[in-house]
């Protein structure tokens, strides 16, 4: 498994890197069979340290966790506990489905755009109807079942997930509704 441990505007020492690798390896070995890589980023937000961890599994699913604490080791330990909880839930759901994925999730390339938001308090008409593109990047669209897409959305902590439906081979969307339920768009 590959580890990428870095810091934003802070120096991450060898002792912390060793601690992160050992702790994360023990957590991942319990619940994930074939993790491919992990990315851990430390940063300082005012008087607290923040830790963001992302683990990519060979099934194509991604688990993410974030935590903040006054000490850098405590921030990682809290983040590690959240990651362990997510992976435990993921493994339990896989057992509940009585179906193991035999091949990795297929990913298709797509473009992702970030559009500029309208300025607050601006009631006038825009100069053009074309939105201003702030950023453009490559993204991957996974081929999943609906259940796996919902699980991936919850693991990643995102409100919306676009995926290629394995059953129908078309693009679908799952999203979290305002009432807390999950919506599924199947065009």
UniProtKB/TrEMBL annotation:
GO terms for cellular component: cytosolic small ribosomal subunit. It is found in: Cytoplasm. CDD domains: RaiA (cd00552). One of its GO terms (molecular function) is ribosomal small subunit binding. GO terms for biological process: negative regulation of translational elongation. Required for dimerization of active 70S ribosomes into 100S ribosomes in stationary phase; 100S ribosomes are translationally inactive and sometimes present during exponential growth. This is Ribosome hibernation promoting factor. It comes from Roseovarius indicus.
């Amino acid at each position: 498994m590959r580890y990428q441990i870095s810091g934003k505007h802070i120096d991450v020492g060898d002792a912390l890197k060793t601690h992160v690798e050992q702790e994360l390896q023990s957590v991942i070995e319990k619940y994930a069979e074939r993790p491919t890589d992990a990315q851990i980023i430390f940063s300082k937000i005012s008087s607290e340290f923040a830790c963001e961890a992302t683990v990519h599994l060979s099934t194509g699913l991604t688990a993410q966790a974030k935590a903040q604490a006054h000490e850098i080791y405590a921030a990682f330990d809290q983040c590690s506990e959240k990651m362990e909880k997510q992976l435990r839930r993921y493994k339990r759901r896989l057992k509940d489905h009585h179906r193991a994925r035999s091949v990795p999730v297929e990913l298709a390339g797509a473009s992702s755009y970030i559009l500029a938001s309208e300025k607050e308090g601006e009631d006038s008409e825009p100069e053009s109807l074309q939105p201003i593109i702030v950023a453009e990047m490559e993204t991957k669209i996974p081929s999943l079942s609906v259940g796996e897409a919902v699980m991936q959305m919850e693991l990643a902590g995102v409100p919306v997930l676009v995926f290629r439906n394995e059953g129908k081979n078309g693009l679908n969307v799952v999203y979290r509704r305002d009432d807390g339920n999950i919506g599924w768009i199947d065009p």
